[in-house]
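Progress note, sequence design subtask.
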């Protein structure tokens, strides 16, 4: 006798992932505080600026557009300050 195989992917998709907004804000605040505490980017390991840009953009994705824009501007201002000669 042959048994019917169940649906491999489930009948309904699971809930969409939504990060904890407080955790996102804490991480963003931590990154901005880290940047503000630095005197320059010259002491950074190779790729640190690229890594921070990637992480920051991933975090701001989850925020309301106006808040994300404001925080991205603050982030870029700090990055420019750190990379100035």
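Output:
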């Amino acid at each position: 006798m042959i048994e019917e195989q169940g649906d491999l992917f489930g009948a309904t998709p699971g809930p969409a992932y939504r990060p904890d907004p407080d955790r996102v804000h804490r991480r963003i605040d931590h990154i901005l505080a880290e940047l503000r505490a630095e005197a320059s980017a010259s002491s950074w390991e190779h790729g640190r600026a690229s890594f921070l840009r990637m992480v920051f953009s991933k975090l701001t994705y989850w925020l309301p557009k106006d808040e994300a824009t404001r925080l991205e501007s603050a982030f870029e201002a700090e990055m420019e300050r750190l990379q100035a000669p």
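The chain has a mean pLDDT of 88. Work on this subtask will continue into the next period as scheduled.
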